[in-house]
Specification:
475 residues, alpha/beta, TIM Barrel, three-stranded mixed sheet, 15 helices, 41% helix, binds 1-deoxynojirimycin
Length: 475
């Protein structure tokens, strides 16, 4: 990674990698864990590539010490992991606590800290307890209070040691793929309706959890709380598509970022577009895109840092003629891949590292003076495994070069970078067919052996170089 100007990264830059509970832990029914929506979705069959499941995955529940060795081998300063909600609260509520689950996360957190690694914890990374889905999941209004109790439980039990929290991971993706397209759990296909209700309740839940932290825990614990937002970088396909590109951005990043960072409400033009189309389609005003109640804590200002998950860029094409009842119909725009961008592994991931620099600048200019953490970014492999994954290594080099330029030339306050992912893992509806790890995992053997990829070795070398240059010079 010689092309990277390492001096662009501040001394205390967070070098991390990320994972999520359902994707790595396995132990799906061990020691009192309750089922999550992904257990149900996978067990139904016909939903996931090869009918793979997260029943065992990387077995991090039993092989945590192996993961810790991987973290140490990379020399990470930070590790982002998620808590499996139903492992600690099997039915999702604090009425039933599973001490073994709490013990597991205490062990993980303590051993990270003892190794000098700062944990960043995500409270919900797609794996809602099934018991809560049975009551309506993210479409039920009650879920916001239930999430607040769960979050407070975690702050209370782990917050003496955990100072960086993510409430929700990628609400956009979860609402879209789980409630609009139905290709992710809980598999609901309800175009143009549930997606907005689910997204709204996610924001309410996040806001309540942030306010709970702010009032009850921040004074003694002094940590920071945010939510991880997915965004691609959007550019018009042709000059005629400029307005469509604005709409595309509004319906992706701004949908969640505007209420939290700008106004406390959805972007005005998103609201008016959905309301006008609702009337045309026979729905009453306000019925599809809900309103935030004045009686509840506002989402405005509920992020102590900006957490960005960036993977890819899109060219945007106008679809304003689309009259169907759907999210895409409301958006009146469609994102397509520029043929000059190489695809890595999965069909949706076109490599365009410059997009990240442009997006970081956009976020700085549009939203925020709070620091930014890139909480996910990565490159996947499909097909025969290449331990000498030179393409992925080049991808990390190109991407981090862009991050360095964003910091040194555009003045963006980027505090950290988390590669997705520490390990090859269960890639949702692509199962184990798609590999994002810095470590290869041999899913064909019961030992689930972890082997460092070339990209992992190069990432570790970069971290070591930064660390050695950041050390005070001895006299
Ligand atoms: C973002 C999600 O947070 C993560 O769970 C997923 O594996 C990666 N994207 C790659 O698709």
């Amino acid at each position: 990674m010689s092309a990277i100007d390492i001096t662009a990264f501040p001394k205390d830059f967070a070098w991390g990698a990320a994972t999520a509970a359902y994707q790595i832990e396995g132990g799906w029914n061990m020691d009192g864990r309750g089922p999550s929506i992904w257990d149900t979705f996978c067990h139904e069959g016909g939903r996931v590539f090869g009918d793979n499941t997260g029943d065992v995955a990387c077995n991090s529940y039993q092989l945590w010490e192996e993961d810790l060795k991987c973290i140490q081998q990379l020399g990470l300063s930070h590790y982002r992991l998620s808590v499996s909600w139903s492992r600690i609260l099997p039915n999702g509520t604090t009425n039933h606590i599973n001490p073994k689950g709490v013990e597991y996360y205490n062990k993980v957190i303590d051993s990270l800290i003892a190794s000098g690694v700062t944990p960043m914890i995500t409270l919900w990374h797609m794996d809602l307890p099934q018991a809560l889905q049975d009551c309506g999941g993210w479409c039920s209004a009650e879920i916001a209070d239930i999430f607040e109790s769960y979050a407070s439980f975690c702050f209370k039990n782990f917050g003496d040691r955990v100072k960086l929290w993510i409430t929700l991971n990628e609400p956009y993706v979860c609402a879209m793929l789980g409630y609009e397209d139905g290709i992710f759990a809980p598999g609901i296909k309800d175009p143009g309706l549930s997606v907005y209700v689910a997204g709204h309740n996610m924001l309410r839940a996040h806001a309540k959890a942030w306010h709970a932290y702010n009032t009850h825990f921040r004074p003694s614990q002094g940590g920071q709380v945010s939510l991880a937002l997915y965004s691609d970088r959007a550019e018009p396909l042709t000059a005629k598509d400029a307005a469509a590109t604005e709409r595309y951005k509004e319906f992706t990043l701004d949908w969640f970022a505007c209420p939290v960072f700008c106004t406390g409400d959805y972007p005005e033009s998103m609201r008016s577009r959905i309301e006008n189309r609702s009337l045309e389609l026979g729905y009453k005003q306000g019925s599809r895109l809900p309103h935030f109640s004045k009686d509840e804590p506002s989402p405005l200002g509920t992020a102590d840092f900006f957490a960005l998950n960036y993977y890819t860029s899109r060219k945007v094409k106008d679809l304003s003629e689309n009259t169907e009842l759907s999210f895409v119909g409301d958006q009146g725009a469609e994102g397509v891949i520029d043929p000059s961008w190489p695809i890595c592994g999965v069909h949706w991931l076109a490599v365009y590292p410059e997009g990240l620099r442009k997006l970081l600048k956009y976020i700085k200019d549009t939203y925020t003076s709070v620091p930014i953490y890139i909480t996910e970014n990565g490159f996947s492999q499909m097909g025969p495994v290449q331990i000498e994954d030179v393409d992925r290594s080049q991808f990390y080099e190109d991407t981090l070069q862009q991050v360095g330029k964003a910091i040194s030339q555009d003045g963006v306050n980027v505090k950290g970078y988390f590669a997705w992912s520490l390990l090859d893992n269960f890639e949702w509806n692509d199962g184990f067919n798609v590999r994002f790890g810095l470590f290869h995992v041999d899913f064909s053997s019961s030992e689930l052996k972890r082997t460092l990829y070339r990209s992992g070795r190069d990432y570790a070398a970069l971290i070591a170089k930064h660390r050695s240059q950041s050390k005070p010079k001895s006299i």
